[in-house]
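agent> step 3/5: call structure_predict on target 'heme o synthase' (Carboxylicivirga sediminis).
agent> reason: downstream docking stage needs a structural representation; sequence fetched in step 2, passing through unchanged.
tool.input:
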Amino acid sequence: MKSAIKNIATLGKFTISLPVAFTAYIGYTLFSEQQSAEGLLAGLGIFFMSAGASGINQMQEVSRDRLMSRTSHRPLPKEHFTFGTAAAIIGLFLITGTILLLLFNVHAVFWGWMGLLWYNLVYTPLKTRTAFSVFPGAIVGAIPPIAGWVAAGGSIIDVRIHFLAFFFFLGQMPHFWLLVLKYKQQYKKAGFPVITDHLNNQQLFRINMIWSIATLVSVLFLPILNIITSQLIEIIVSLSVITMSIWVIASTYSLHQVHMKSLLKKQFIFFNSFYLWIMILLLIEQI
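tool.output (status=ok):
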């Protein structure tokens, strides 16, 4: 039983689907201006949609997953599930997610499915064709907060959700560059084109620094657009951005002095922790 639950969680990439759901909850909370059980329900709907999309992705890439040590343990390469069983589980994810989002409105359902279709029909095929698939792929990260926003009754033409989506879009780039640097040999073994075929490690680290700084600077616009209104939170955010920016620049230019693997790990953890910190501050604002 424990093994089956673990395999289902791996098929749905629950460790990734959970933070995806959190961004949907952020979108819901920012429009409703309060934390609520309804917001959690909307986030849960996106969680199941994300799990379904992840399962479909694993069905699409099962032959490549077998070739990479980081993915070879998944239930389909290991044949813990048949394709029929996986399809049934994925179907259950998607039905549950759709029903939960339908409790709010059809707009939430639309954006939930838009995320899935973009991920599985646009981004996943492009991964095998171009090393620059990260750009259309980053759109996937911008969709969940939109879904949460419209579930709460927000308008898609509101500039605040446009910027919030842009903030999450920008953050996908450093996340992706660091993963490519860490697992480039596995990606190449599986037949994926990688950006390191075009750029060396130092160039990619510097590009990653630029995208990281752009993401950090974008946070400073949150108070300007009244997404953050508390003066205390604004000060904390500004200090966090300055501190993180200095660290990103200093760590990038120390590449020749430290082991690349160690630097990759630190930048990956610190950058994702910063994102989580900003989301927590956005929620604290609504208390």
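agent> step 4/5: record observation. The chain has two domains: 1-156, 166-287.
agent> proceeding.
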